[in-house]
Amino acid sequence: MQAILNPPGNPKAKYFKHKKNQTPADVDEWMAGAEEVPGSWWPYWTEWLQKRAGKKVAAPKVTGSKKNPAMENAPGLYVLTDERKG
């Protein structure tokens, strides 16, 4: 399912939510009480996160620390193809 990849503004985006904002243990029960919502779920999720995240703090100026030094510069070797790794 590509709903995870649909950013706000995609006219094909949709998601489902339970009408009573409940999470029944049984998926069939959840679907029976679910409704389709047009648009991306990202704004809803962002709002949910912001209510629970606490205050914002500045990002660190450097990665790692003395105790846990960075292994390599971003983006990291894992994103490079085998050809580029050497």
How is this fold's topology laid out?
Layout: E1 14-18, H1 27-32, E2 34-38, H2 42-52, H3 82-85
Structural overview:
This protein has helices at 27-32, 42-52, 82-85, and strands at 14-18, 34-38. It has 86 residues and is α+β, with helices and mostly antiparallel strands. The protein has one domain. Strands 1-2 form a two-stranded antiparallel sheet. The longest helix is centred in the middle third of the chain and has 11 residues, at 42-52. The protein is elongated and about 50 Å long. The mean pLDDT is 83.
Biggest beta-sheet profile: 2 strands, antiparallel
Q: Taking all residues together, what is the mean pLDDT?
A: 83
> Nearest-angstrom radius of gyration?
20 Å
Low-confidence stretches: none
- Cα(first) to Cα(last) distance is 35 Å
Which structural class fits the helix and strand makeup?
alpha+beta
Instruction: Count helical runs.
Output: 3
Beta percentage is 5-15%
Quick take:
The protein is of the alpha+beta class and 86 residues long. It contains three helices and two strands, in the order E-H-E-H-H.
Please tag this protein with its features.
alpha+beta
